[in-house]
Amino acid sequence: MTDDEYAELAAQLDRLSAVPDDVLSEVVARDGLCLWAFDRSDFPEGETDRATAARMCAGCPVVDECLELDLRTAGENTVGVWGALPDTDRRALFPVWLRRRGGEAR
Ligand code: SF4
Predict the structure, then answer these.
(1) Residues in domain 4Fe-4S Wbl-type (predicted)?
(2) Which ligand 1 atom sits closest to the C-alpha of 82?
(3) What is d(CA 26, CA 6) in angstroms, rounded to the nearest whole number?
(4) Rounded Cα distance, 55 and 38, in Å
């Protein structure tokens, strides 16, 4: 992803900035495709996280909520696939997102 894409994505999450953690968590647990529609272990071994994210999160109705929650809770220590992104992208997005929040996770 490019710097502009990270900036655009971080701006897209602004609409969720006032949503409490527990509400985000409830929405993602309830509606997240990977949390009720299928098992993450169904994906082929050896598939890259980027490919898994594209496949697993396609059509998920709570991608932004999932991404926002992961940025808040895991931040730069994030691992695996969340919010339709591999962890490398979320680690790069984290400081951009954090700056938009004034340096505070909440
Ligand atoms: S965005 Fe992806 S990782 Fe997050 S709940 Fe949806 S399917 Fe799962």
Answers:
(1) 33-92
(2) 3
(3) 26
(4) 12
Question: Residue 85 has what DSSP assignment?
Answer: B
Amino acid at 83: G
pTM across the whole model: 0.93
Nearest CA to ligand 1 atom 3: 82
Structure tokens at 27: 């929405």
First CA to last CA across the chain, in angstroms?
A: 25
pLDDT of residue 105: 55
pLDDT of residue 73: 97
Q: How far is the CA of 62 from the centre of ligand 1 (A)?
A: 7
How far apart, in whole angstroms, are the C-alpha atoms of residue 11 and residue 5? 10
Residue 86: what pLDDT? 97
The span from the CA of 72 to the CA of 23, in Å, is 13
From CA 68, how far away is CA 35, in angstroms rounded? 16
DSSP three-state, residue 82 = strand
